[in-house]
Amino acid sequence: MAVDTKKCVGCSDCVVACQTENNVPIGYCRDWVVEVTDGTYPQLELELRSERCNHCENAPCVRCCPTGASYIEEGGIVKVKPHKCIGCGACIASCPYDARFVHPKGYVDKCTFCDHRIKDGLKPACVAVCPTKCMYFGDLNDPNSDVSKVLKLRKYKTLIPEAGTIPHLYFLI
Amino acid sequence: MREEIIVSGRNNHLIDPHLEIWEWQIPSYLFLGGLAAGILFFAGLYFIQKKEKEYNTAVAIAPIITPFLLVLGLFFLFLDLKHKLYFWQLYTTIKLESPMSWGAWVLMIVTPLSIVWAALHIRSVFPNWDWKFEFLRQFETFIAKYKTPMAWVMMISSVILGIYTGILLSAFNARPLWNTSILGPLFLTSGLSTGAATIILLSKSHKERLAFAKIDLLLIAIELFLIVHMLMGFRASTQVQIDASKLFLGGEFTAVFWVFVIGMGLTIPAILEIFELRAKKIPYIIAPIMVLVGGLILRFIMLHAGQMSRWLY
After folding, report:
1. CATH class belonging to A2-172
2. How many CB pairs under 8 A join A and B?
3. Chain A environment of B98 (Cβ under 8 Å)
4. Closest CA to B37 of B189, B205, B236, B253
5. Complex ipTM above 0.85?
6. Where are the domains of chain A?
7. Fold of B25-308
8. Would the CB atoms of A86 and B10 count as touching at under 8 Å?
9. pLDDT digits (tens, 9 = 90+) for B270-294
10. How far apart (Å, rounded) are the C-alpha atoms in residues B220 and B186?
11. Which chain B positions have a beta carbon within 8 Å of A108's beta carbon?
């Protein structure tokens, strides 16, 4: 997934859409919007980012999970099997992006890229609802997908690549 | 100036404003696991060296408490789980890349071993102990023949257990304060030191106490070296680890770390032990109690400070 930081207005629609689509319990969220302000007034620079799980290729959460509840699904989506999760918290401590949380039912919950929607040919709820169309989703291995095309055209960054997790959430800059 | 805020108001329980996924259960377990590992290590070592008469407390008496320490530790681990009814999933998987998985399996080896070892030595505390059932008596005579191989397994698995308590944390690259390979050896040394302290507390032989005071002194010296080494490593590393070290060097945890861990947990007991070895009259229980409390506080501080350290982006 790619998020255009130049188009995002920080409306938090993606957050609400995700909560509604995935029945995220009240008080929790799987995605969030970060506002970064650089400089001192009047020379200010602003960046807005809609963040979520980075679906890392070298996912520390999957590596440290003692039961195999956290796994990388075919296609690269990092998911959790609730019936295998013991709620030990290792994956939560291992995530440099703090993208996971404990569901009130006890298991660990996180962004799934709305894989139930993808299977039906739809886009993830956050992408579909974005009023500025700042998010691009698709298969990175498919050169004709929305995300592959936009990553070819634009400059982008990932968050803390130095943590070595090979994140797959791209921010267009 | 750079300011980063979450404008959509993320407030995930136990995650925000900073990670608090592990509370008192994990550091308590790390302490109990390390302590049991320390006691079992000395029991195995001195049994193999055939010094069970000289060091009776280390080989026969102190190990009797280890099953209780381990079971209590395991209970704390269970309390920490947020999805408790699924805990058995731990024992359907062996995942070598997950320290928590092989730690759970090591505990499954060490705990029964400590129970058997304790059972074999129960008569050194209760001389008239009787197993009541014939099959238990038979099992005792059977297993008593294999004490030497058992001591070897116990010694090796207790080192793995002791070092695991540190590796569990150091495997988390996401928390810069934990992400140092020194943590494994540091927690192992601290575990051995608390084990030696327990033996001193339980021993009635002056000679044994002095021998373990000497061992403890050496372990404290190694611990101090490892802590200095760890902080030096942080200072010479990347920005996130420099920031992490600041938690102990001027930041939030400075006072508790230097007063309770370095001062009361390591330096003062070391001085007391030196006095004792030089035959000065000091109540011998003070130093080991300080070592034990210091070891517990070290686990608590490392755990909580580690959860506050993070990557910046």
Report:
1. alpha beta
2. 155
3. 63-66, 90
4. B189
5. yes
6. 2-172
7. Formate dehydrogenase/DMSO reductase fold (1.20.1630)
8. no
9. 999 999 999 888 888 999 999 999 9
10. 10
11. 82
